[in-house]
Amino acid sequence: MVVKQKDKYTKELIKFLDENSNGGQTTITIPLQRKRKLYDSFIIHPIYKNSKIIAINTEKRVMPADTYFCIKIFEHVLEVLQSADKKTLAKGNAQKHKMGEPGLDNATIEYIIAKKFYHKEDGASADRRISVIANILIASNLCISKKSSLTLI
Q: Do 94 and 110 touch, CB atoms closer than 8 A?
């Protein structure tokens, strides 16, 4: 069995989560890039198994449909960004578009995640997960956000 070694970006993300949660003992407050009327941050909690972070749980108000984000999602986003032109990809807009439509096509992070991890097909609706993922990667100092794209730094 071949064990895939974590790259430097994934290691930095794990370090950020581990240090800021005191090894999973406390929650982490993640600032929102785009402030909301009633709040400007959300809370996450890393989930550990055998002393390793396997997922991140978010507040229900942020992701009412699904609060659980496996760490493999973040690893994949970081991999895709590394291989992207200028280490930048469009975020995608699952609120306004269905899978495969302009605005949520196969060149967007939202589409890639929905297809690979949630098995969404073209024409289907996708839950909007990019804001949680992007804000965590930005708080970890791994990415910067532009109006509709995410760039690995």
A: yes
Q: Are 111 and 99 in contact (CB under 8 A)?
A: yes
- Say if residue 110 is exposed, middle or buried (CB neighbours under 10 Å; 0-12, 13-18, 19+): buried
The rounded distance, in Å, linking the Cα atoms of 14 and 103 is 30
Q: What is the pTM of this model?
A: 0.90
Residue 60 pLDDT class (50, 70, 90 cuts):
confident
CB 13 within 8 A of CB 78: yes
What is the rounded distance in angstroms from the CA atom of residue 122 to the CA atom of residue 111? 9
How many Å apart are CA 128 and CA 114, to the nearest integer? 9
Percent helix, strand, coil in the chain (nearest 5)? 30, 20, 45
C-alpha triplet 85, 89, 92: angle, nearest 5°: 155
